[in-house]
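hey m, so remember when u said the tokens were messed up on ur end? i reran from scratch. heres the input so u can diff it against urs
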Amino acid sequence: MLRLAYLALTNTFALIRLLPMSDRDKDVEILALRHQLAVLQRKAGKPAFTPNDRTLLAALLHTSPPRGYGSSTS
């Protein structure tokens, strides 16, 4: 429970920090974070998710808008 509270708090602060940023700045930060993640995955290997991690990821993906062929921007 403490872990979930910590994740919620850190994600809230991250969202507050991203609000005043332009789309270009957000895209640059996303690219930098993806690169850092790729480097860490090469060093550490594939992470082992706990059941709580899987539940949180499933909930986040379930609430996100659909992506891919079915989504349209017009």
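this time it looks ok to me. The chain has a mean pLDDT of 79. if urs says something different then somethings off w ur setup not the seq
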